[in-house]
C-alpha cells in the first residue's frame, strides 16, 4: 500500500543558507540564484513525473525571501513616502521572478540599505512554490488539468493556495506573522505569481514586456493610433524607444515590419512601446465596463507601475460641452460597485497634483491653447462611473439628480474603478476623457456621428496621454509616488 502524501519523504533542492548583504546588486543576484534553483528543480521533477509516474516522494521548493531587522527609529527624510520602515522590528517579503523585477528590487533594496544602514538577509522563506507557477518560467511546459496525470499532482507537488493569495497587505488587513515579522512589500510571491499568470491570459503578452507607464482605453481606435505612433518613434533614432510589442508577443524594431493580427484576440489586447528599464508606455484596451477595469488593474498592480492614465470616451453631462471636448477628472463618483468590498465608497479618491499638471500641460501643448482659453476645450470636474451602460433608459429623476448633486460633468464605466484601484494599490493615477456623446441633451452616440468624431479626435487624445506620460517619466520617483497614496503603516517597498 502506497504511503499517503503526508507520510512521504520530502525532497528539496540544495541551496546556500541565509546570508547578509550590504549591496543591492549582490543581494538580487542571490535572489535570482535561489529562485532559479527552485524553479528548475520543480520543472525537472515535474517532467520526470509526467513520464515515469509518481516518484514515491514529495518534491518541494521554497520562494526566496528578503528580510530586514532594525532596532532604531531612524531619522528619515520626511518627504519620502517609501524606501524605509517606520519603526524598529523585523520585516520580510517573499520574492518571485526576481529576474523580471530586477530593477525594482535593486532600487528598493538600495533605499533600505541607505536609509537604515543595516544589511538585508537573503535566504529561503517557509512558503512553498507551487509547481504551476514554477513551470510558467519555461516555454512549452504546462501543468495539465487535475486528473490528466496518473497521480494527483497535489500528492507530489505544492499547488496554488488561494487562502494565502490575497490583498490583505494593500487592504490594510494583514497581521504580523507568529514571530512578529511585518510585511516588507505590498504583495507576497504567490499573489504576484497569480497575477503574472492572469496577465498572460488576459493580455496575450508576457509580463516582461510591461512598461512602467500604463495607458488604459476603452476603444480599439486608440490601439490603431498607438501602433502608428510607435512606428513613428521606431523610425526616429533619437526617440529612445527600442521596440514595439503587439498581441501574441510579436515584437518589432523595424518601423515598417508587418504585424499580423492573431486569429483569436484576448479579452484585453495589450501593446508595449518599450524603452530600457521599462521606461516606455503600455496601452491596454480594457473594453467597456468596471469589471474589466478592476480585473486589469488587479493584476497589473503587481508590476508596480509608476503611473496609470485612463484615456477613453465619456458622456458629457453639461450643456456647455461639445463633442470632442476633454474632461480632466479631479474627483470621482463611484457607482461602479466592483470595489465596494475592498475600498468602501466613503474613502475619498484624491486628485494627484503631479498627474493633473502633466495632463493639463499636455492638453495645452497639443491644442495650442493656454490659461482661460483652455476652458474652450477642457473642463475639470467630477467624473461619474456607473455599472449600467444604458443608465439613460431608466427613470430619469434618480440618476440625474445624483449626477447633478455630485456636480458631475462626465460619465463613463471605467475611470473611477481605475482611479480607486490605483489609490488602493498605491499607483499614481489620472483620467483624461473625451466627450463622445451628450445623452441628456439629445446627442446620442450614433454610427455616422461616431465615425466623424473618432477620426478627428482619437489621434490628438492619444498624443496628449503619451505626452503626459513622457513628462511623468522624467519626474523623480519620490515626487510622483507621494505620501497622498500611503497610509499610517506602510510597507517599505513601493
TrEMBL record:
Keywords tagged on the record: Hydrolase
One of the record's GO cellular component terms: cytosol
UniProt domain AMP nucleoside phosphorylase N-terminal: residue ranges: 27-179
Catalytic activity: AMP + H2O = D-ribose 5-phosphate + adenine
Gene Ontology MF, one: AMP nucleosidase activity
The keyword Lyase appears for this protein: no
Domain of life from the UniProt record: Bacteria
InterPro entries: AMN_phosphorylase, AMP_N_sf, AMP_nucleosidase, AMP_nucleoside_Pase_N, Nucleoside_phosphorylase_d, Nucleoside_phosphorylase_sf
Stretch forming the signal peptide: none
Residue span(s) of domain Nucleoside phosphorylase: 279-441
Record-listed E.C. numbers: 3.2.2.4
Annotated function: Catalyzes the hydrolysis of the N-glycosidic bond of AMP to form adenine and ribose 5-phosphate. Involved in regulation of AMP concentrations.
Name of the protein described by the UniProt record: AMP nucleosidase
Transmembrane segments: none
GO terms, biological process: AMP salvage; nucleoside metabolic process
Organism encoding this protein: Antarctobacter heliothermus
Family stated for the protein in its record: Belongs to the AMP nucleosidase family.
Amino acid at each position: 500500500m502506497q504511503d499517503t502524501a503526508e507520510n512521504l519523504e520530502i525532497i528539496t533542492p540544495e541551496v546556500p543558507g541565509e546570508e547578509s548583504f550590504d549591496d543591492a546588486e549582490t543581494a538580487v543576484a542571490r535572489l535570482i540564484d535561489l529562485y532559479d534553483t527552485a524553479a528548475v528543480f520543480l520543472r525537472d521533477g515535474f517532467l520526470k513525473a509526467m513520464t515515469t509516474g509518481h516518484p514515491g516522494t514529495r518534491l518541494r521548493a521554497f520562494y526566496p525571501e528578503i528580510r530586514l531587522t532594525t532596532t532604531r527609529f531612524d531619522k528619515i527624510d520626511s518627504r519620502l513616502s517609501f524606501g524605509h520602515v517606520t519603526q524598529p522590528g523585523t520585516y520580510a517579503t517573499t520574492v518571485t521572478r526576481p529576474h523580471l523585477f530586477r530593477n525594482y528590487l535593486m532600487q528598493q533594496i538600495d533605499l533600505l540599505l541607505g536609509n537604515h544602514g543595516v544589511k538585508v538577509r537573503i535566504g529561503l522563506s517557509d512558503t512553498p512554490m507551487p509547481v504551476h507557477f514554477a513551470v510558467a518560467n519555461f516555454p512549452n511546459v504546462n501543468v495539465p488539468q487535475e486528473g490528466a496525470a496518473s497521480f494527483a499532482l497535489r500528492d507530489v507537488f505544492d499547488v496554488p493556495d488561494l487562502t494565502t493569495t490575497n490583498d490583505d497587505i494593500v487592504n490594510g488587513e494583514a497581521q504580523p506573522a507568529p514571530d512578529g515579522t511585518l510585511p516588507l512589500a505590498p504583495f507576497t510571491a504567490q499573489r504576484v505569481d497569480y497575477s503574472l499568470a492572469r496577465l498572460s491570459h488576459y493580455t496575450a503578452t508576457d509580463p516582461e514586456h510591461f512598461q512602467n507607464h500604463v495607458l488604459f482605453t476603452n476603444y480599439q481606435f486608440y490601439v490603431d493610433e498607438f501602433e502608428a505612433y510607435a512606428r513613428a518613434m521606431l523610425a526616429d533614432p533619437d526617440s529612445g524607444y527600442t521596440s514595439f510589442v503587439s498581441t501574441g508577443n510579436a515584437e518589432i524594431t523595424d518601423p515598417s515590419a508587418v504585424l499580423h493580427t492573431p486569429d483569436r484576440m484576448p479579452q484585453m489586447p495589450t501593446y508595449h512601446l518599450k524603452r530600457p528599464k521599462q521606461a516606455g508606455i503600455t496601452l491596454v484596451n480594457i473594453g467597456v465596463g468596471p469589471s474589466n477595469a478592476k480585473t486589469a488593474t488587479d493584476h497589473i498592480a503587481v508590476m508596480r507601475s509608476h503611473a496609470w492614465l485612463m484615456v477613453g470616451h465619456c458622456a458629457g453631462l453639461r450643456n456647455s460641452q461639445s463633442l470632442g471636448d476633454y474632461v480632466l477628472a479631479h474627483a470621482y463618483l463611484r457607482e461602479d460597485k466592483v470595489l465596494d468590498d475592498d475600498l468602501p465608497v466613503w474613502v475619498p479618491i484624491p486628485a494627484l497634483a503631479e498627474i493633473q499638471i502633466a495632463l493639463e500641460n499636455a492638453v495645452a501643448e497639443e491644442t495650442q491653447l493656454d490659461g482661460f482659453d483652455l476652458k474652450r476645450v477642457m473642463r475639470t470636474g467630477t467624473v461619474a462611473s456607473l455599472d449600467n451602460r444604458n443608465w439613460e433608459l431608466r427613470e430619469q429623476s434618480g440618476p440625474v439628480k445624483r449626477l447633478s448633486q455630485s456636480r458631475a460633468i462626465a460619465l463613463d464605466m471605467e475611470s473611477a474603478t481605475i482611479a480607486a484601484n490605483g489609490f488602493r494599490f498605491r499607483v499614481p493615477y489620472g483620467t483624461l476623457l473625451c466627450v463622445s456623446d451628450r445623452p441628456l441633451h439629445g446627442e446620442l452616440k450614433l454610427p455616422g456621428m461616431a465615425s466623424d468624431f473618432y477620426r478627428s479626435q482619437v489621434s490628438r487624445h492619444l498624443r496628449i496621454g503619451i505626452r503626459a506620460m513622457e513628462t511623468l517619466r522624467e519626474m523623480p520617483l519620490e515626487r510622483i509616488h507621494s505620501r497622498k497614496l500611503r497610509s499610517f503603516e506602510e510597507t517599505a517597498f513601493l
